Amino acid sequence: MNTQKGHDNHRYWRVKIREVGPNWPIGTSTWLVPPYPPIPLRRLPDFNIHKQALVPNSGRFSYKPAKACIYCGANSYISAGTPAENPLHREHIIPDALGGDIILPQASCHECEGRTSFENTIIVQMFDAVRRNLAIRTKKGNFRKAHFPVTVSHDAREVCVRLHIGDHPTILVLPILIAPRNLVNAEPGSPCLHSLYLCNLNVSDSTLERLRLQNINTPNVDMFLFCQLLAKIAHAYASAELGPGSFASLHKSLIEKRLAKNEASNECFDFIGGNIQNEGPSRQLHELGLGYIRKDSTTYVGVRIRLFAKFNSPSYYVLAGAILR
Ligand SMILES: [Zn+2]
User: Could you list the residue range(s) of the whole structural domain that residue 307 is in?
Assistant: First the structure.
């Protein structure tokens, strides 16, 4: 594989792929270290994961109803009217668009649904062609969409073209992160991206040649929006397992924050990080885990998130909040 890595502001990351080569067969993954000097590694403390939720390729699991908005505590969908007239809407712990059929009923109010709609933006940016390629069917049925964008280079000029899913060179990209900053007392603002994970879902040199593509770019990873997505999953999973209001969320301000396109923010890595160890094979589409971490006389609830686990992907470790007694 011949690649070139790029970033803008350290917020957006993507990789330009010139050729795939025999060393990167379809269905296999690789890690690429970004071009800045290697970051000092931080050992991830043990999250003592004791609960697991596995998200298989199909099948549904439902928790008992939360009966309170897990973000703001409201008990009806809109403020006018009673909970019986306006019941809260259900939350998917992992977004429906990623095939996550674990449901927390009666868990989100109208206002908070709007606040968490950023998840659609990041899922379309990073995973739109991926979920079509993996045949992840959702209730909205996005199988009608058949053409997906990819940025390619033509005579040193970059253009975005839309290709039919049968031709679309689809690569799954995920950031690989080191331990959350606050958990290991790391310097505020210190870098957290260790490398990029890439999984080749369907690209071969013969397809690139047939389509006359000199090179292709992976989707852009917006690190800030991606961390918001992780924060939301961790918050929803901890709320489902422990009950809303049983912990003080560390992510309220992060989930509500909106950045302009060219703005960067580093706070997202304070309580969100990952493990650079290979976490072993899995048959699940996604994996979740819950555990407790003790630090400075506080007990935190920690969540392990492994998206696309069956492709040997990295795991994220998120401090969801401090346990209230
Ligand atoms: Zn709410």
Answer: 2-323
